[in-house]
């Protein structure tokens, strides 16, 4: 556990640095584009429109999921995923892409995944607020369930950091890791309840549903959905919540141990 505490301390001591570099990356990402930062919102809006047209109108014929319009059901699962997927992919490459530069200065490389998480959070928060407004207009606002939003935000940040401190460290040593992460994130999109309702699928048996729910991102996607349109508290299924946190801590422990063991040798692998 000492390795986890070491990384937590580094994040806290370098919060100002994380915010400053994260804001710079956000501003510079689309600096040379004619539409500038509009692309930060245009890209996800295009994806939302395409998925709604294909899965909502094309496959489902506009039918709702239970009593929830499919568009809202899709939106509450897709918005978190549009943050999770690119952040995991980009943060997994964060150390390798910067190690040659930061190795020449007194810079804690453990904050590099956090910087990417923060820079992507700005768009995520704006889209999240827009989603809440749209849900309210539809009259499907979750009411009291919204107070558990901070819990799921903390959960998503901790899990992403746990995964990416491991993958970003391994990606310096074995470059194939980055490609593996990209492939897994593409596959995972279709294994999560984002565009289809896993639990109500007649084609899946109970053991298969349980197997899919072992994915910690399943917990987060459903959690954000329950928070935004209501239906369940995070402590209603306390066993599932305990499983999520045990798995997250195990991943973080492995990731922090690997990172601290190899980070002084990262430059040697370039």
Summarize, please:
This protein is mostly helical and 270 residues long. The protein has eleven helices and no strands.
Written account of the structure:
The two termini are 29 Å apart. Helix 4 runs antiparallel to helix 6, helix 4 runs parallel beside helix 7 and helix 7 packs antiparallel against helix 8. The mean pLDDT is 87. The protein has 270 residues and is mostly helical. It has one domain. The protein has eleven helices and no strands. Helix content is 72%, strand content 0%. It comes from Lysinibacillus halotolerans. Its main location: membrane. It is found in: Cell membrane. It is a multi-pass membrane protein. It holds the Pfam family ABC2_membrane.
Task: List the main descriptive attributes of the protein structure presented here.
mainly alpha, 72% helix, 270 residues
Helix and strand pattern: HHHHHHHHHHH
Strand content: under 5%
Radius of gyration: 19 Å
Task: Tell me the domain tally.
Answer: 1
Give the distance, in angstroms, between the N- and C-terminal Cα atoms.
29 Å
Secondary structure class reads: mainly alpha
Gross morphology is globular
Helicity, as a percent range? over 70%
> For the report, how would you describe the main beta sheet?
none
Number of helices: 11
Low-confidence stretches: none
Mean pLDDT: 87
